[in-house]
């Protein structure tokens, strides 16, 4: 069976304007989750936004994720199936890209994100209890 090869070069920027939902988490937990996802060889980590005060991170996930999202300490934007459109520039004054489109996969798998956020929360709780 032939193996599928992945390009090691830079990704092409997204121009398809596909819809997506947005999972928001506290920045500390989100930064830990990004590290876990990238170190753990997650298939793809999608674009990640930060707010201007760097209190919150937002992970782009497939549309419809909000309907079944149940991760304590986080929220998923309900888009009623319409989905947030991925803009070329951050979608709010004072926000920015931690992982910009074009440097990432199209979206983060919600199941993989849920696991990484859970692991991040446990790591933070353990570190804070010392």
From TrEMBL:
<feature type="compositionally biased region" description="Basic and acidic residues">
    <location>
        <begin position="1"/>
        <end position="17"/>
    </location>
</feature>
<protein>
    <submittedName>
        <fullName>Uncharacterized protein</fullName>
    </submittedName>
</protein>
<feature type="region of interest" description="Disordered">
    <location>
        <begin position="71"/>
        <end position="109"/>
    </location>
</feature>
<feature type="region of interest" description="Disordered">
    <location>
        <begin position="1"/>
        <end position="21"/>
    </location>
</feature>
């Amino acid at each position: 069976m032939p193996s599928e090869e992945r390009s090691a070069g830079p990704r092409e920027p997204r121009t398809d304007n596909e819809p997506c939902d947005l999972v928001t988490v506290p920045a500390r937990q989100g930064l830990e989750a990004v590290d876990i996802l990238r170190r753990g060889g997650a298939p793809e980590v999608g674009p990640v936004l930060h707010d201007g005060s760097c209190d919150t991170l937002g992970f782009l996930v497939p549309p419809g994720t909000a309907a079944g999202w149940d991760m304590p300490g986080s929220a998923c934007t309900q888009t009623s199936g319409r989905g947030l459109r991925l803009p070329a520039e951050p979608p709010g004054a004072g926000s920015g890209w931690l992982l910009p489109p074009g440097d990432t996969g199209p979206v983060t798998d919600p199941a993989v994100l849920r696991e990484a956020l859970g692991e991040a929360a446990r790591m933070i709780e353990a570190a804070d209890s010392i």
